[in-house]
Write a structure and sequence with these properties.
The chain is built from three helices and no strands. It is mainly α. It has one domain.
C-alpha cells in the first residue's frame, strides 16, 4: 500500500511524465482542464460579487430614500466587507507562500 500527499492541484512532474508516456497528450489535457476550471471558478466568483454589489446598491438607495442614512451606509460596508477580507487573506497567503520559496 502506498500513500502520497500533494500540496497543489496538479501531480508532480515525475507523475506527469508517466501519464504522458502512457497517454500522449495527457499532460496538456490536465493543464487545460486545470486552467478552464480555474477560469470558470473565477467567473462565478466575479458574478457573485457583481450581483451582491448590485443588491447592496439597491438596498442602500432604498434606505437613503427612506431616511435611514446610517443603515444604508452599514449596508454598503456589509456588501464590500467580504471583498476586503478576501483581499487581505489573499495578501497574507501570498506573503506566507513567499517565505517558503
Amino acid at each position: 500500500m502506498l500513500a502520497a500527499f500533494r500540496k497543489g492541484p496538479l501531480p508532480p512532474p515525475a507523475e506527469l511524465e508517466k501519464y504522458e508516456s502512457l497517454y500522449p497528450g495527457a499532460t496538456k489535457l490536465l493543464f487545460d482542464n486545470f486552467i478552464n476550471q480555474t477560469n470558470h471558478r473565477m467567473e462565478l466568483e466575479n458574478m457573485v460579487i457583481r450581483e451582491d454589489n448590485k443588491r447592496a446598491k439597491i438596498l442602500a438607495a432604498i434606505l437613503f430614500i427612506m431616511g435611514k442614512d446610517g443603515v444604508a451606509i452599514a449596508a454598503v460596508f456589509t456588501a464590500i466587507a467580504p471583498i476586503i477580507i478576501a483581499f487581505i487573506a489573499n495578501s497574507i497567503s501570498r506573503q506566507n507562500s513567499a517565505t517558503f520559496l
